[in-house]
Structures
1.
Amino acid sequence: MKELKFLEGKKLTVVGYGSQGHAHALNLHDLGMDVTVGLRKGSKSWEKAENSGVKVATIGEAVKGADVIMILAPDESQPELYKSEIEENLKEGAYLGFAHGFNIHYERIIPKKGINVFMVAPKGPGHMVREIFEKGHGVPCLTAVYQDQSGDTQKVANAWANGIGRNVGIIKTTFKEETETDLFGEQAVLCGGVTELMQAGFDTLVEAGYNPEVAYFECVHEMKLIIDMVYEKGFAKMRDSISNTAEYGDYVTGKKIITEKTREVMKDILGDIQNGQFANKFIAETENGYKFMNEERAKYSDSKIEAVGSKMRAMVFKK
Ligand SMILES: NC(=O)c1ccc[n+]([C@@H]2O[C@H](COP(=O)([O-])OP(=O)(O)OC[C@H]3O[C@@H](n4cnc5c(N)ncnc54)[C@H](OP(=O)(O)O)[C@@H]3O)[C@@H](O)[C@H]2O)c1
């Protein structure tokens, strides 16, 4: 892979072995790159990483002497981690990478001078970055450069993106654009928007007396089948594939769900992301021990939709 030449012969370190960490480390290791995973002492992932064939060291040791370091610990842990284990061990001219622009954009990490700073943000969850790679394909990545001491940081970012994503595609962006669009997309559409939409549809049918199992199929299970068509072929081809009845319902009803008011709310959500209010609230939540998030997790894991879903998935995916 010609694009990999900007990583070849370099010592690569991936900090963290979670969702993204295992995918970046293993994909690059499979391509013959020299990868070390940096983990905290006593990490529960240590044995797992070692068993998968990559070198493992404590974060400080893994960063010391490394040429390219990708930080793949959770966003909220990165500022402290950078100060305590990474900054002092970064050598002059090292390339420091992020998979999301949050900490650089909101100035929670001010990288020291004399190093290069880049971003490779895969457009997919970590387990998909690995799974798709293992099938011989890849996910596209956004790349950006924040600090370019060596003059070739974009090339290193491209090489990393091409390596983990098998040359599928790179879009150049900025830390600001990636951070703001990523936060907006996951809140308004991909995670917050979609889960509330499925939940509201399910609740409406169940409250009206319909069988929860049928409601689950209609409002949750089939979501993937429709989205897969949009993902692979676009809106027009998806609409071509559904019945005329479904297509007519799509046109007349979609706009009753996503109203002008919803679009106004989307603008407010984007505003809070742009002015840093969302980031401040999230940081306060992490400092408060994730109290609100833990309450929400408990509420959802106890919900009817999860109980029905678990039964339905056992039926659909039985071996
Ligand atoms: N999740 C995604 O699909 C996704 C998609 C695009 C971009 N990103 C970005 O990728 C980055 C990593 O996210 P992620 O979801 O992959 O993270 P994650 O799975 O939550 O990361 C877990 C890993 O980080 C380590 N870790 C956790 N807290 C730590 C700390 N305080 N000090 C040192 N190591 C710590 C864990 O160590 P132990 O093993 O010891 O517990 C584990 O190896 C983030 O910047 C995120 O925004 C993620």
2.
Amino acid sequence: MKIAHISDLHLSGKHFVEEWGENLIKILNSKNLDLVIITGDLTDDGYMHEYEIAEKFVDRIGIEKLIVPGNHDARNKGYEIFEEVFGERNKFYENDEIILLGMDSSEPDIDDGHIGRENYKIIENKLKGNKIKIFALHHHIIPIPGTGRERNILIDAGDILKICIEHEIDFVLSGHKHLPWVWKLNKTYFITTGTACSNRLKGKSYPSFNIIEISENIIVNEVNVKSGKERKIIETNIK
Ligand SMILES: [Fe+2]
Ligand SMILES: [Fe+2]
């Protein structure tokens, strides 16, 4: 199966680049994908009119989607509108190959990430078994190099990290930092994807997203949304 992981679209603000947005839709719709995971920050401030823009954009991606909110989407009671437009803030998906849990790591009107003790058991109970286990959330769990002074990392990052490692979650997918990076700790890959179509880029980086292809091996390719070029970032035979 083939999954795209996109994040930080910021579709309604002054940093959204229309050309990159169009490229993104074109590339996604041409890749024979089975699922698109969106890890938040679809809007800038969570307002109703921004969600309307986000909904229209996301509808143009003709593929099944699993969407969780980011800190920007939770602003101004946007978390309520998120539920109306994109469904529950936590999401679950399972097929023959993967088990995927998407969780809301945002807190209303602050930028910090947070999962919360009440959710630890849910992660443990949902993400078990022999299938490929994927946990998706907006915030990063491990600091990302080149993104300046550390802030907004999950405030309970230590506990979540321990759960991910002990339960041998295969992939943890996040965004928020607008800079792609991969950490591997024990058996778990922690993949942060870049911003898909906003110009809030770090240094000379470019808008991007990742495609995870699960067959004999698992291959993760980073796609440059500006040029359309792909670059292999992970190849593993964890199955
Ligand atoms: Fe963002
Ligand atoms: Fe964010």
